[in-house]
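Table S2 (text version). Query chain:
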Amino acid sequence: MEQQYEQLIQILLEKGFGSVDGWFSDEEQLGLRKALLSRYNNDNFRHAGIGDKFNLTKVASIRSDKIHWLNVNTEIPAELSFFAKIEGFIQYLNRTCYAGINSHEFHYAVYEPGTFYQRHVDQFNADDRRKFSMVLYLNDEWIEGNGGELMIYKNGDHKIDPIPGRLVFFSSDIEHEVLQSNFQRKSLTGWLKTL
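Corresponding structure-token output:
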């Protein structure tokens, strides 16, 4: 796993953002996709908002996806495996880079056709505990024209395709947006945080 961890660290050191493929196996991705769809089909998702928990508002003209927050005490094996891998990465990141990460939060996100998330940063104005953002794409497939790409705005404009199994890692203070999706775009998104 250390080689995979180093991939993400190098991405951060070189540009502050980037993506890797194959960080999660096909079996791990399938398990997470099934868990996401099970929760989605059982109406466990809610319209996402903007702002922190003290100033949360729902503005569909800015953000129109639906989300379901994950609990580390889940009983779903695929989610337990996901958290184990994330926690292993956090330990490695802290040991090798003195990052000071001591918590995380993740949610599933579904963008139905016509939905998007306008340009924003993941750190809140009065709360900079989110240090690193991660997105794992759980789509069945993705082809040109499906939309839902992630735009990163740092030293130019960079478009990242939501290829199944692709993991995106970036500093949470970087501006980014999700372009309009033309299909059901599925992901697992979250943040590595300090206290």
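Notes on Table S2: The first strand starts at residue 17 and ends at 20. The chain has three helices and eleven strands.
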